[in-house]
Amino acid sequence: MLKPQEVYNELEQSRPKVETVLQQGQEYLKKSGSGAANNLQHNLRTLKNRWDSVTARASDKKIKLEIALKEATEFHEALQVCTSFKYPVKLYRYVAVLSTPQSPTGMYHIF
């Protein structure tokens, strides 16, 4: 399975090919008669509409993925801050509890 960025890059690499086909199609339309031009014009319009749709959706997905990556990174950083604060406090608490002599029932109430 291709990664989204790889798909987007492939679309960008295909852009010149599609633009060339559309341009050549317009040139053929100018040279051809009206009967054959209708079918070609319809095909060119369909190709352009589909290409625009695919590139717009790919751009939208790319933007959404970039936002999701940014949010995930922020969450990860916040989680790291939280866990780096939380674990030393817990460890200190456990060490303090274990280092003070307690009866077995007294230790149970502390935890």
Task: Give a description of the structure.
It is built from 3 helices and no strands. The chain has 111 residues and is mostly helical. It has one domain. The chain is rod-shaped. The relative contact order is 0.07. Mean pLDDT is 79; it is low at 107-111.
How many domains in all? 1
Average pLDDT number: 79
The largest pleated sheet is described as: none
- Category by helix and strand content: mainly alpha
Shape, please?
rod-shaped
Tell how many strands the DSSP assignment holds: 0
Poorly predicted parts: 107-111
Oligomer: single chain
Gap between N and C termini: 49 Å
Q: In percent terms, what proportion of residues is strand?
A: under 5%
Helix-strand topology string: HHH
* Helix segment tally: 3
Radius of gyration: 32 Å
Query: Helicity level, as a percent range?
Result: over 70%
Observed structural traits:
111 residues; mainly alpha; single chain; rod-shaped
Provide a concise account of the structure shown.
The chain has 3 helices and no strands. With 111 residues, the protein is mainly α.
How would the blueprint of this fold be written?
Elements: H1 4-31, H2 34-99, H3 104-110
Helix pairs in contact: 1-2
